Amino acid sequence: MKLLKYPFILIWRIWFYVLMLCTIILLSPLFLILTSSDRYYHQFFWLVRNVWANVILYGMGFYPVIEREQEIERGKSYVLIANHTSMTDIMLMLKASRNPFVFVGKKELARIPIFGFFYKRVCIMVDRNNIKSRTEVYERAKKRLDDGLSICIFPEGGVPDEEVFLDEFKDGAFRLAIAYQIPIVPMTFADNKKRFSYTFLSGSPGIMRVKVHTFLETTGLTVADRVALKEQAREIIGEQLHAFRAEEEQEVSGSSFFR
Fold first, then answer.
1. Beta strand 184-189 with 206-212: parallel, antiparallel or unpaired?
2. Where is the Phospholipid/glycerol acyltransferase domain (predicted)?
């Protein structure tokens, strides 16, 4: 039975890249204009959030369901974080925040044809193996924060291994939030690994649940508090992942009981 599914999964997976490529090509004239200056970034963000992300998510049969413990305030800056196990995390994060934000991401993504060209123009790239590059992130982030934007960092740094439940968090997001005394917005992405993992012949359409947790304030904290803050954020996201998993197991056991 699994062998019969593989051709359909293969076509569906290829469709993801077709959607990404076609939407970027079709929108590229607008992207070129809106990435030509930082003053157009709000318009660029609106376009990628409401058009590009929607086309890919709904075009793949993914349906975001977002639950919020606290609302993001318009015009306020935050550091947005979430667990990171799928390429669809980018699109789902765009759906989770109406406030414009800038991604901090690894420089290797700039090598992706077409996508990488615009990625370099709008994202803050970092080489995690280069101390100077990591330091420069703070300078570029400050400029974006001064413009009233938020910053998004996936503190795991990307986890292609599906056996990893929740990897250790890196310091960057927490150092940044403390340095500029802005709140951290922890989010838990429940289904992205199951829906569209890094394993090519896997996945399925369906709901993508997001839990936006109560924000973590950093007012009065110093760099010495970063470890405790990091562990607090990781614990919040980890507990929610366990809760989501327990819900799924309960649903499975319930459905098998009534068979």
1. antiparallel
2. 78-192
pTM: 0.91
CA geometry: angle at 210 spanning 88 and 84, to 5°?
A: 45
49 within 8 A of 149, measured Cβ to Cβ: no
Coil, strand or helix: which one is 251? Answer: helix
Residue 247 has what pLDDT?
A: 85
Residue 2 lies in a domain: no
Would you call 53 exposed, middle or buried from its count of C-beta atoms within 10 A (0-12, 13-18, 19+)?
Answer: buried
20, part of any domain: no
Query: For residue 208, how far is the Cα from the chain centroid?
Result: 13
User: Is the separation of the CB atoms in 181 and 226 below 8 Å?
Assistant: no
CA distance 60 to 23: 13
DSSP letter (8 states) at residue 101: E
* pLDDT < 50 regions, the chain: 257-259
Compute the distance between CA of residue 110 and CA of residue 112 in angstroms, rounded to an integer: 6
Q: What domain count does the chain have?
A: 1
pLDDT of residue 51: 96
